[in-house]
């Protein structure tokens, strides 16, 4: 018998094929093969929102091969990803290949391992239409919003703009935060800080802060208050009045969900959400590890569950006992409480085979894959380890009517921090009640309250999750989309709204406040979850949405009749070479550019270039950071007409010790720092 297994990814097909044997042929659909048409709405809103799917033109050769292979096979199994999107792809495949979706043709793998594939293939089922309909409803909702709101933006703002149901809310969150920052008024406050020395331990000076005056906590709002307190302290004796020692336990964090993985990868690895999910997808689909063959190294990476299988937990416990000893095991196995609203369709993100350590897999992984696997592996193993125990001490120092306080801690037992989230000791000398201390320095320090920080990718994902906006599979695409559409830009890892993003958000808040808002979007996610659970009909969800949406759109069209919103330009110090007037930054269809403020009388324009601080190794002129058509950063000479130097490798501030030229850092498997000047040859790992 010949059996055909269809997956989405060629890499996944390669890994699975090595496990199934000669009776199976595994091929990839390379993602979706059918979708709504690009050139029209593609939804019959008058006929229960019937979607008008089309075969994707760029997949014609793939579809032809799939039909041929399916026709010549005795059985066909659809093994796309185990989520709504994967279920919908399987349904589309069944439709195109004339398969009965009610027959047991659907298999899912929560992990791409021998056991995971065996389990999946042993439990075929029919295509889950509740999952399919939840995905269909999301796709149709997003299509309706995009195709109805985008033309409104073309007429009222500028052609070429696009709107999205979830993306517009994400931009609004960022814009609202920026307005908070702009409106923020700093408030002055002061602290009294001292450096003290104990006669018994003169080489261990320590800090303490004013904590109370006359037994009450005090807020110092100006210099006069601070100086008055300092004057009293100058003649006071500093005596240890209280030493409180205790033990504190710290529990490990649970294994990763999609959002916590993206947040941690941002903070610890400086990975954007898109980069994180790309590496995670590759780890899930499988790599060839020496001694283990082709294997998926992590479980499915789109999940909001904290559940861990008993087998995986037992394997982790066994490994911890073997490597670290019994002291590093908790008294009883660890289970983590699910957050409210978690789907629990998959386990938490964990290594599929905990015995494959990051170092064992390193030779088979790219740098990004290794860094992410190392983080996932350590977090999971640490989540099953014993608590860390700290000896803490709090010391009060009396000085007249004032009390200063300092705290410190030392690690009594490192527990899970031996592997993950290490804590540093804050050492204090051994002090006794009644002991006099010598003040080495006491001063008042002025501070100002700070505005709330701009969102980073990590904090935005956290905000989206807390507000119930989007799901694990949508966080990374949402952020990529709002940056690609130039509604938001990254400034030193922070997300800042562009002028365009602010204009569109204000327009939406004025005319579509009942649709482009966090509560509405969160409720829509809940409704889609109910469709997935079989509690609601997808058509009814769309009907409830569309009536209000159509009325709101008609009202906005009426209120904006004959009006157009102008996008304000950003002034610059740059001078126009044609007329001498200052130039302004504007946003066009292809990004930011500089235009003369005298437009339309003067047509002067100029590209916005970003210098790197490095020099071209061929001609010595400045090097610029540029973007390819696909958005990838590369570096090239500013004199691109006469000098054709370009590279994907990143210039660094360090100079070549041989010729004093700019050095470059090569990433990927061939990691090195090198000089690109011809005939120099300097390089190092």
Question: Can you describe this structure?
Answer:
With 685 residues, this protein is α+β, with helices and mostly antiparallel strands. The chain folds into 6 domains: 3-127, Rossmann fold (3-Layer(aba) Sandwich), CATH 3.40.50; 140-184 and 454-559, Topoisomerase I, domain 2 (Orthogonal Bundle); 188-251 and 388-448, Topoisomerase I, domain 3, CATH 2.70.20; 259-380, Orthogonal Bundle (Topoisomerase I, domain 4), CATH 1.10.290.10; 570-606, no CATH class; 610-684, no CATH class. The protein has 17 helices and 30 strands. Strands 8-9-15-14-11-16 form a 6-stranded antiparallel β-barrel. The chain is globular.
Characteristic terms for this protein:
685 residues, alpha+beta, Rossmann fold, Topoisomerase I, domain 2, Topoisomerase I, domain 3, 6 domains, six-stranded antiparallel barrel, four-stranded antiparallel sheet, 34% helix, globular
What's this entry about, in short?
The chain has 17 helices and 30 strands. The chain folds into 6 domains: 3-127, Rossmann fold (3-Layer(aba) Sandwich), CATH 3.40.50.140; 140-184 and 454-559, Topoisomerase I, domain 2 (Orthogonal Bundle), CATH 1.10.460; 188-251 and 388-448, Topoisomerase I, domain 3; 259-380, Topoisomerase I, domain 4; 570-606, no CATH class; 610-684, no CATH class. The model has no long low-confidence stretch (mean pLDDT 92).
How large is the share of residues in beta strands? 15-25%
Mean pLDDT metric:
92
Strand order of the largest sheet: 8-9-15-14-11-16
Fourth-tier CATH superfamily name of the largest domain? Topoisomerase I, domain 2
Q: What is the CATH domain class of the largest domain?
A: Mainly Alpha
Q: How is the main sheet built?
A: 6 strands, antiparallel, barrel
Number of contiguous helices: 17
Radius of gyration: 31 Å
Q: Which parts are unreliable, with pLDDT below 50 for 5 consecutive residues or more?
A: none
Q: What is the rounded distance between the termini?
A: 52 Å
Number of strands: 30
Provide the number of structural domains.
6
CATH-defined fold name of the largest domain: Topoisomerase I, domain 2
CATH architecture assignment of the largest domain: Orthogonal Bundle
Please state the overall shape, judged from the principal axes of the Cα atoms.
globular
Indicate the structural class: alpha+beta
Helix content: 25-40%
